[in-house]
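Invent a record, attention on tokens:
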Amino acid sequence: MGIMWKGLNVNCTDSTGYTPLHHASLNGHRQVVLKLLQFEASSDLPDSKGCFPLHLAAWRGDVDIVRILIHHGPSQCRVNQQNHERETALHCAAQYGHSEVVSVLLQELTDPCMRNSQQETPLDLAALYGRLQVVRMLASSHPNLMTSHTRRHTPLHLAARNGHHSTVQTLLEAGMDVNCVVRKAPIG
């Protein structure tokens, strides 16, 4: 076994820019992830969309692999790395309602205030897609997300736009200003 691995480049990429670690992270193969990291696989290489293995594990909602990527391996896995859409792993997990992963990423000091290329925070995405549990977690752990908004939208706008009744109710109960005006930038 050892001899086989020696000549192999464990970080080689395929046509999508995926390393073996990307594939294993996306497909939930925990033992393979651990083995690859043991053989010096880097968690620090982006694919063709700028996603790191951590993004893929968060997107899939695999809390074990998220933990493994953060705590094992030769390269320090940076939780706030952004892909080409400027999304962090927290954006990925929040959008798909993976509350366990959201919880782990927050414990690992992921910055919940980072915005993607659409100026959306993870809370914005959770509200937009009606991910109730994630909305509750982010609103309670980071109340500042309720007040820091761009000129484009608030989480409440996004939840209302898609008709997520329970999410709207949760945001209002958490203290979101129902008449919050998003001011347009002055011309010129």
About this structure: The domain at 11-111 is CATH 1.25.40.20 (Serine Threonine Protein Phosphatase 5, Tetratricopeptide repeat). Residues 46 and 52 are 5 Å apart (CA to CA). The mean pLDDT is 89. The radius of gyration is 19 Å.
